[in-house]
């Protein structure tokens, strides 16, 4: 182990010497064109300023260095956008110039970045994959067709919570919401549940998706020092390989099962049917690997994010009982925290939206939970239906109390950084039926 760290230090020192020499010759002219930012240290740049909650650290740095800030992160130079005006410029006015994405080393696992709708360059293949999602999940026609399915899955969630209430058992809100979103998506894609909606199951799949999101969002030395790529010093790519193999294996079993069915009624056509037909008729547009990676993207983006949003919303509502009472009638979810736009931006005040025209659909850049421009989340229309439906149903059918004697204002609010910001500790609450 000691040799391993000495090797890393040696490589970093070798890099630093080379970098210092080249920067003295070429770096000064380039640096003058960059936006302001903190003065970098040798070798590591400003990595030490990120901490374990980079989103919070960057917000604090932006108050010092401005809404467009440059950061030297090891060998990489990053630009951080922290205002609505700058975000609009990048995501809307200059969308074509900025729509390509850098590839985190974690997504080199299983060559995911070469097949993922989230990372492949905007082009024919990207448009094909986006069209599959938009036509079969996010279009008005498909959303209308899946309305009954959404109702069934939310009703199953209410049944599970009611069962827990009869024995005064606490409910893990995040896991319960995850099962609902998982089965909703799996029925849309595969026409079947992937977990029992009435039991405390689905833990393995939730942890698998959660681990993928955590590893993909975890600060990775290789992204800052590409010279370390062969070593994978934190083991992130190795773990991602295992996670990807496992979830792709699940999809392969479902695909093989479907291929063994000789015929299906036309009105039962789901996303898998559409993909299999396209893969057969136009294999150059949709290969089997593209199909499996598309499913991976859809489950990663459509399950963990939904359950996390519901969990955070319930946490905030429990900490603010007066708002919980108002939310029995109507609920909005607050995300944006720019104090120049939102008064008391760190406080949970959903009523702020009652007098605001700002929307979340990617046109108002003060609040962009789904991103913007051509890379905007294709699952946004579904999320805007399922999250309020799940949260509203939980509030309208039950009263909720904490599974501890702690006062709600002392509720743990620690965050866990990743692609999405998760609650560090699960929220356990006890439901009591209103009737």
Give the key terms.
mainly alpha; two-stranded antiparallel sheet; 7 strands; 52% helix; iron; monooxygenase; oxidoreductase
Structural commentary:
The protein folds into 2 domains: 2-102, no CATH class; 124-433, Cytochrome p450, CATH 1.10.630.10. The strands form 3 sheets. It has a 3-stranded antiparallel beta sheet. Strands 1-2 form a two-stranded antiparallel ribbon. The protein has a two-stranded antiparallel ribbon with strand order 5-6. With 435 residues, the chain is mostly helical. The chain is 52% helix and 7% strand. The model is unreliable at 1-7, 24-29 and 331-337 (pLDDT under 50).
Give the secondary structure arrangement, pairings included.
Blueprint: H1 2-31, H2 54-65, E1 68-73, E2 76-81, H3 84-93, H4 95-98, H5 124-138, H6 140-145, H7 147-166, E3 171-172, H8 173-190, H9 203-217, H10 221-224, H11 236-259, H12 271-281, H13 288-302, H14 304-319, H15 321-327, H16 380-397, E4 398-402, E5 415-416, E6 422-423, E7 428-433
Antiparallel strand pairs: 1-2, 3-7, 4-7, 5-6
Organism: Mikania micrantha (bitter vine)
Keywords: Heme, Iron, Metal-binding, Monooxygenase, Oxidoreductase
Family: Belongs to the cytochrome P450 family.
């Amino acid at each position: 182990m000691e040799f391993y760290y000495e090797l890393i230090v040696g490589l970093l020192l070798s890099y630093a010497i080379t970098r210092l020499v080249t920067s003295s010759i070429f770096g000064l002219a380039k640096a003058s064109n960059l936006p302001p930012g903190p003065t970098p240290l040798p070798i590591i740049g400003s990595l030490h300023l990120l901490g374990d909650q980079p989103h919070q650290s960057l917000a604090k740095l932006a108050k010092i260095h401005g809404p467009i800030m440059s950061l030297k992160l090891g060998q990489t130079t990053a630009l951080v956008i922290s205002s609505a005006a700058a975000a609009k410029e990048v995501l809307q006015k200059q969308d074509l110039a900025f729509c390509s994405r850098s590839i985190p080393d974690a997504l080199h696992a299983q060559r995911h970045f070469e097949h993922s709708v989230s990372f492949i360059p905007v082009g024919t293949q990207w448009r094909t994959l986006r069209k599959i999602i938009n036509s079969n999940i996010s279009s008005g026609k498909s959303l209308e067709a899946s309305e009954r399915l959404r109702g069934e899955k939310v009703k199953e969630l209410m049944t599970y919570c009611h069962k827990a209430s009869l024995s005064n058992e606490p409910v893990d809100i995040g896991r319960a919401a995850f099962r609902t979103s998982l089965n909703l998506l799996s029925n849309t894609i595969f026409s079947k549940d992937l977990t029992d909606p009435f039991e405390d199951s689905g833990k393995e799949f939730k942890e698998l998706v959660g681990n993928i999101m955590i590893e993909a969002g975890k600060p990775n030395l290789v992204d800052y020092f590409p010279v370390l790529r062969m070593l994978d010093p934190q083991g992130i790519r190795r773990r991602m390989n295992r996670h990807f193999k496992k979830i792709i294996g699940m999809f392969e079993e479902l695909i093989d099962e479907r291929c063994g069915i000789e015929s299906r009624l036309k009105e039962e056509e789901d996303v898998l049917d559409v993909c299999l037909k396209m893969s057969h008729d136009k294999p150059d547009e949709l290969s089997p690997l593209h199909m499996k990676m598309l499913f991976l993207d859809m489950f990663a983006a459509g399950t963990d994010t939904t359950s996390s949003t519901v969990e955070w919303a319930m946490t905030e509502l429990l900490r603010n009982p007066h708002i919980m009472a108002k939310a029995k009638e109507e609920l909005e979810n607050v995300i944006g925290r720019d104090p120049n736009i939102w008064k008391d931006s760190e406080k949970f005040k959903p009523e702020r939206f009652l007098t605001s025209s700002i929307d979340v659909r990617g046109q108002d850049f003060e609040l962009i939970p789904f991103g913007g421009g051509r890379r905007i989340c294709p699952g946004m229309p579904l999320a805007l239906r399922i999250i309020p439906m799940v949260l509203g149903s939980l509030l309208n059918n039950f009263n909720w109390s904490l599974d501890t004697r702690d006062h709600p204002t002392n509720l743990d609010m620690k965050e866990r950084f990743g692609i999405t910001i998760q609650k560090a500790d699960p929220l356990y609450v006890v439901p009591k039926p209103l009737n």
